Amino acid sequence: MHKMKMSPTEGLVMLLLLSTAEARNCSPCICEYLEETWTWKVDCSSLGLIKIPPLVSAHIRILYLQNNRLTTVRPGTLDILRNVKELNMSNNPWNCDCSILYLKQWLEDSHPASLANATCATPAHLRTKSLSQLSGNELEGCRKLLPIKCLDFLWRDLILILMAILVLIFASCILHYSKKLVSQVSRKQQSCEVPLLPWHELETQKIRKRL
Asked: What residue ranges do the domains of the chain occupy?
């Protein structure tokens, strides 16, 4: 078994914890200090728990929570755990609504092997299904979040559409103004060229009369 590496300061702290281990209040769970790895074993199994009690340390290596009445886990409850190697959450009546997402995601990140051992008790259509088999669409209550997200996307799309319309209007105005300017320039050129023809003819007639 590999020993966990710790700094001298952490070792001193753990020795102090070891000296006061018997005085540590782990109720209602049973806490055992593992000298070989300088970590803890916390046994909270078969106590009829409806919620996970405060965890004694971040250095928990073994955690037993099986055979209780746990239905969900409050977000953040398990964030303190960084060194769990053995975890058992089986035989709990997990309620697989949207609130179970925290536990599912935490297990996926920290202890994937336990996903298959945690099975749903409710709702009825998910009974006996493990957390590893659940998808977001199967979790009741999660669909209620979708309209909010869709609304966010709707506002974003409306803003983009509005900006596109404004750009098209601006481009149309520029094009219209350009055509109008070209037309005005063309008319001015024509007005300057037309009088030249009669003047040229008059001069020709005057010369002919003199001759």
From this structure: 8-136, 147-210
Q: Phi, psi (5° rounding) for residue 183? A: -65, -40
Q: Which two tokens stand for residue 49?
A: 């728990």
Q: What is the pLDDT, as a whole number, of residue 174?
A: 87
- Torsion-angle region of residue 50: left (phi > 0), alpha (psi -120 to 50) or beta? alpha
Domain boundaries 8-136, corresponding CATH code:
3.80.10.10
Which of 86, 90, 78, 142 shows the shortest CA–CA distance to 119? 90
pLDDT over 60 (residue 175): yes
The pLDDT, as a whole number, for residue 178 is: 82
Q: What is the residue-averaged pLDDT of the chain?
A: 78
Sign of the dihedral defined by the CA atoms of residues 24, 106, 94, 114, in that order: negative
pLDDT at 145 over 60: no
Query: What contacts 34, CB < 8 A, 6 or more positions away?
Result: 40, 41, 61, 62
**What is the phi-psi region of residue 77: left when phi exceeds 0, alpha when psi lies from -120 to 50, beta otherwise?**
alpha
Place of tokens 């320039």: 185
Residue 27: predicted pLDDT: 80
pTM above 0.85, yes or no: no
Helices marked H in the chain: 8-19, 101-110, 146-193, 196-210
Count how many residues are written for the chain.
Answer: 211
